[in-house]
Amino acid sequence: MFPGERDIDRAVAELQEGLPERLRPLARVAYDYRWCWAADGPAVFAAIDPERWVRTGGNPRRLLTETHRATLGRAAGDARFVDRVARLADELAADRARPWLGGVASPDRPIAFCCAEFGVHASLPIYSGGLGILAGDILKEASDLALPMVGVGLLYRTGYFHQRIDVSGLQHEYWLDADPDRLPCVRVSDVAGRPLTVEVPINDETVTAQVWRVDVGRVPLYLLDTDLSANSAVGRWVTSRLYESNRTIRLAQYAVLGVGGVRALRALGIEPAVYHVNEGHAALGVFELLAQARAAGGAGYDAAWQRVREQVVFTTHTPVPAGNETYSRDEVLAALGRIADLAGDREQFLAAGRIDPANTGQPSGMSALAVRASRRINAVSRRHAEVARAMWQPLFPGRALDEVPITHVTNGVHAPTWLRGPMRELLDRYLGEGWLGRADDPATWERVNDIPAAGLWAARCAARAELVDMIVQRSTAHRLSRGDPMDYAEAARTGFDPGRLTIGFARRLATYKRLHLLALLPERAFALLGGERPIQFIFAGKAHPADADAKEIVRQLFALKRAPSVAGRVAFLEDYDMAIAGQLVAGCDVWVNLPRPPLEASGTSGMKSCLNGGLQLSVLDGWWAEAWDGSNGWAINGDVDGDHQAQDYRDANTLFDLLQHEVIPLFHERDADGVPQRWVAMMRRSLQTNGPRFCATRMVREYAGRIYPNGAMQQP
User: What CATH number should be reported for the domain holding residue 219?
Assistant: First the structure.
């Protein structure tokens, strides 16, 4: 039993008091996010009060406390619904009762997975994009595999920003408070029943953080929160916003996540077998581990550092500078000087985060610190490992590039979370009982050959129709709310067609993702939108509030909205989140990704689309560089080119050539029964090649088999 279990039990009992007796099993379900990837989980909660479910953002705790008693009473009087509740509760209870996987970790010594964000579900707003979604998928897969693991993160009171686009296409940001007392989480208490807290020295203040627990299936996620009256206004703000623009606050967040996270685990009585630092944000925790090592054995600095490195592994996620921040000497010491004292020497503290430890003029960074402090380092795709080895080679002086000890574990996605709707039903029917537990076995996917082409195509069409229905509702509302002309708003209602080829581009809108390529050749785009066989584009994504260039790309896209055929065939969905992402990857026929190579470390949205029978059209970078085989999708050259303008025009032309001459004709090539046989054959090939290789089952098993076990360390 992990710490906080009694707090969960108390919260469940309190929630049960307000429920009809026959619905009381839902209280325990509500406090276990495994409901969100159980086949009938979301549908059970939605059936109680569909409108309230939407208004609560899919938050089961709010649904059960805010739904009118008469509505709950009607649900409790429906014998079939009560049976569904019982089956769901029994499914989750049976899952929690399974024995743990033996080997690299145990419940007494679990893996501690430390990350700045976790995308578990849209109702828990502590994520922004791909890093968090991946972290959430890893916790879910660890639960499914019964791999002993705990998550460590921060409880952001206002989370990541919400997005609104005005009539000109300019992004506006706003934040909403997330009251943890209305979330399915509990404040962890100590043996005396008081809230468990830890202290972290930041600037001139000792900041106190309390600890919350969220259950992600069998894996507890512990979240630190500094919004306490004991702290100053600045101290309370530290865990307020994810990826806060203020550099001093960001350093403070890294201190709470790293140092506070290690202290919290110790206060909880958890001694991890391994600390998995997922991106560099949590790297400061190594200094708390260093202090513990020196205090326990009286070891010198170098010996203690070796002991720390035996406990830490590091995953690097991006070569982009924004993901590998550095800070000046003055910035670091002003915010973290007292944490530096944990190591015993401020110069050693600064040197640990520099590329050249001896160069006192260099800034210090969390990524360099994490590389230096870890016994194993991995990138998130094969190509990213090549980029990372070149990027961090200076940390390994005297070593050839191919001797830099950075391996790769290519990302994967949690299939039960992202596979949904008609395709989930179809694969459940044909791939055999318990197939999701064997999703990493290519033999599991061989049974896709048994699915009739008409069945695969019907599932694809049904998923597209569901997506188009959502687009019509959201786009009409968005256009009306921002004051667009009535004819433009009406076009969203009447223009989108559930039978039309639907192409998706949705992700974090950093400039290197190159959304602008789709508007770089407007005449070619207009010709495809308004041609004899028209297509429809769906866009979504957020630009970081401080990224003016990315915001300008969205504005340029909106400048084309009044062109003929655009209003009813192009939609930009505001406020992209996990809920919207799930619908897009399920419904789009083609998923487009256009990163500037080699900056796409991996990417995962295309993997989710492939799971749902979508086809990938992407630059050969990240995961697609090792996935594309010439028969399972389409590819754009992934070579590096220093002439970015020439590369952009070349890649834009290639994109439109592929759409015009290959994608559109293939989609419309139908047999006598209306089935595009060659398109379905490519769907089948994509499922069979990408399903087993890019699922989280394969990924987490690789971490457990290759990264987490102790062994010989490579010295940086």
Answer: 3.40.50.2000
